[in-house]
Backbone:
């Protein structure tokens, strides 16, 4: 039996990991444990570690790595804190593999610890390109984590090709798709009527879901302008808004400050953390998704959900016709909303769905690859094929 540890630091990344974790948990060839850290252990998303506990996965360690601050040094100090604790966990647990996903600070810490301690690291969702015009540290973190990792499970063939151009050996790189699509496929459908009774009567209205995060290059004024344009145009066109909490990146309090100005508006409903079942079905019944979440690029197309992405976050990524990129100008947001609500040809094209990021069976593909990997000493002996 091979021991696999998965590192998770935030709700959104855990949801992408969940289908694979479920497959690993059910397979007798693997012993799965989770290292839970970051925002999971904070009130920002109502202690989302509770969802991990409810899902029944074994938590081998809880690392209090999130420094709840808006300063640029907060993540640096958090990474240092995580590394010191993670080294002890890896030494104690001696895993055969460490799973990391994405481009957040937990991924960089996990890949660094695994590389130095001779633990094979499997990086999920590497090779992506999310670099906006003004630049953002996530791009650098993702590629740095890839270079420190040993096995790569990418979401698209273009991502695999990018890793190969970065010098990764071909046998290490596998295109498997996005685990978020597995999550959507696996989630039972709830009718609009039933969801109304469970979540909010406002689901009876024509509604949009809004999820917005900052970039390290953003200013407070930019955040305010982008959010105000989304709120004012959506409200002005009669949409009810279901608004989720931002992630824990610096600038999150700028987002929350804008949210406070709309918290009493009758067309606005705020939530911090919805169950997977309720959140997926909220998206299924929504008119569109607003904001700048990766969800709009990576999963919404599969669902046939129109997206309005404001500003620079997510620009540069592979995206299908469901995503409209708009500026912070209210006219730009207004035109995009009108297109979603009146352009029947466009909506029909979006509703057909997309397999740009896979077919919804990422977890089974990864499981089969993990079972067929060579012995440990070959995995950790990386060679660059420049």
Residues:
């Amino acid at each position: 039996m091979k021991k696999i540890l998965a590192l998770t630091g935030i709700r959104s990344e855990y949801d992408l990991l969940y289908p694979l974790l479920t497959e690993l948990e059910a397979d007798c060839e693997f012993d799965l444990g989770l290292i839970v850290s970051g925002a999971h252990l904070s009130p920002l998303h109502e202690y989302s570690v509770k969802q991990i506990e409810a899902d029944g996965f074994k938590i081998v360690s809880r690392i209090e790595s999130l420094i709840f601050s808006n300063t640029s040094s907060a993540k640096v100090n958090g990474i240092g804190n995580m590394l010191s604790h993670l080294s002890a966990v890896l030494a104690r647990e001696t895993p055969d593999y460490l799973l990391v996903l994405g481009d957040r600070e937990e991924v960089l810490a996990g890949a660094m610890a695994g590389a130095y301690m001779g633990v094979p690291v499997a990086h999920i969702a590497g090779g992506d390109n999310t670099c906006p015009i003004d630049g953002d540290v996530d791009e650098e973190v993702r590629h740095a984590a890839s270079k420190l990792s040993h096995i790569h499970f990418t979401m698209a063939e273009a991502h695999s090709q990018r890793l190969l151009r970065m010098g990764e050996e071909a046998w290490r790189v596998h295109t498997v798709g996005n685990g978020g699509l597995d999550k959507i496929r696996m989630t039972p459908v709830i009718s609009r009527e039933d969801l109304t009774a469970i979540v909010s009567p406002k689901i009876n209205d024509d509604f949009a879901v809004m999820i917005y995060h900052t970039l390290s290059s953003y200013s407070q004024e930019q955040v305010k302008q982008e959010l105000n344009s989304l709120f004012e145009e959506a409200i002005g066109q009669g949409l009810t808004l279901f608004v989720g909490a931002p992630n824990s990146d610096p600038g999150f309090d700028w987002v929350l400050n804008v949210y406070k100005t709309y918290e009493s508006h009758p067309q606005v409903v705020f939530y911090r953390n919805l169950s997977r079942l309720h959140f997926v079905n909220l998206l299924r019944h929504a008119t569109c998704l607003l904001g700048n979440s990766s969800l709009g690029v990576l999963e919404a197309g599969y669902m046939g959900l129109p997206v309005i992405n404001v500003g620079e976050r997510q620009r540069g990524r592979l995206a299908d016709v469901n995503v409209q990129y708009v500026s912070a100008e209210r006219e730009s947001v207004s035109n995009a909303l009108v297109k979603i609500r009146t352009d029947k040809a466009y909506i029909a094209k979006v509703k057909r769905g997309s397999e740009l990021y896979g077919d919804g069976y990422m977890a089974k593909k990864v499981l089969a690859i993990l079972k067929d990997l060579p012995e440990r000493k070959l995995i950790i002996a990386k060679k660059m094929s420049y």
Q: What stands out?
A: The domain at 2-177+360-380 is CATH 3.40.50.2000 (Rossmann fold). The chain has two domains: 2-177+360-380, 191-351. The chain has a mean pLDDT of 92. DSSP finds 17 helices and 13 strands in the chain.
